[in-house]
Design brief:
Blueprint: H1 14-17, E1 20-21, E2 27-30, H2 31-37, H3 43-59, E3 68-78, E4 81-90, H4 92-100, H5 107-156, H6 161-175, H7 181-188, H8 202-221, H9 227-247, H10 262-282
Antiparallel strand pairs: 1-2, 2-4, 3-4
Helix pairs in contact: 3-4, 4-5, 5-8, 6-9, 8-9
């Protein structure tokens, strides 16, 4: 069975053949199919492997229910009779953990460890690219909306650069539970020269984009006048966004870790575009 696996771990792999797709487009494997591929003749012996995998999942800080789903299924017995049997629906990560805890003497287990290690790493890289794309998009949107917010603030009476800095701090204080820009810098371990927005992950950027867009709209809609009123409006909107995050059970923005500088991502993408262009010319 191991000979069916290609060098890339795809196509002819028995693990790929038993992969299923649910109605939402998500992939999963069924524990009984996996047990059969791994040459467990008695499913009850594989159940012990699943339990070890669940423990490893928990110890790694992941939610077991996100990767293991206990189900019952009906199987035919012949003559039209059926009986219910137990199975577990497994994510790719769950399969990886299960195979790490399977019988290492089996050749197919070694092949499975290679297959899921490669595929899991590929998925991690894909997820990283998705997060980078989100950050780039949201950071550009914030640049654009901050310019519009500055215009709305100016119409309200926030004219001097010093006053605009105070205005921005009120927005941060509302969203970050009273923390000013310099406080957030310290909290995130950033240097003074580093911009907070360049070190936010997509979740934090989205919260700040919402704060900026809603403040701009409210300043214009309510025809707010005066620096104090503009500052109060910005802080109130920030606090509302914070309240929404709390009600949804989200992580407060000040608790989110600082991300890699978005400048590095932009540089990396430019190099990738340059290499792609060079390759096309050579072709």
């Amino acid at each position: 069975m191991g000979s069916e696996i290609t060098k890339s771990g795809e196509h002819h792999s028995p693990f790929e053949r038993i992969r299923k797709i649910n109605e939402g487009g998500g992939e999963y494997w069924e524990s009984r199919d996996l047990a059969e591929v791994l040459e467990y003749t008695q499913y009850r012996n594989f159940e012990a492997v699943i339990e070890k995998a669940k423990l490893a999942c928990f110890n790694s800080g992941h939610r077991i229910e996100d990767h293991f789903a206990d189900v019952s299924k009906m199987v035919p017995l012949g003559g039209g009779a059926e009986r219910s049997i137990k199975a577990v629906l497994l994510s790719r990560y769950a399969c990886y953990l299960a195979i790490q805890n399977a019988d290492p003497k089996k050749e197919i287990v070694a092949h499975g460890q290679t297959y899921f290690a490669i595929q899991t790493r590929r998925q991690e890289l894909a997820d990283e690219n998705i997060e980078e794309d989100r950050r780039l998009l949201l950071r550009e949107e914030i640049r654009r909306h901050n310019a519009q917010l500055a215009g709305a603030a100016k119409n309200a009476g926030v004219v001097e650069p010093k006053d605009y800095g105070i205005f921005q701090n009120h927005g941060y204080m509302g969203l970050y539970g009273g923390l000013k820009q310099e406080d957030i810098h310290r909290r995130k371990g950033l240097k003074k020269s580093q911009k907070i927005l360049d070190h936010m992950g997509s979740t934090e950027l989205a919260a700040n984009l919402f704060r900026a867009t809603q403040t701009e709209e409210k300043l214009r809609r309510d025809k707010v006048k005066g620096k104090d009123s503009a500052n109060r409006t910005h802080r109130e909107v920030g606090a509302k966004v914070r309240q929404t995050i709390h009600e949804l059970g989200g992580t407060m923005p000040e608790e989110l870790p600082a991300a890699e500088s978005i400048k590095k991502i932009e540089t990396k993408r430019r190099k990738q575009i340059g290499k792609a262009g060079t390759s096309k010319k050579k072709g």
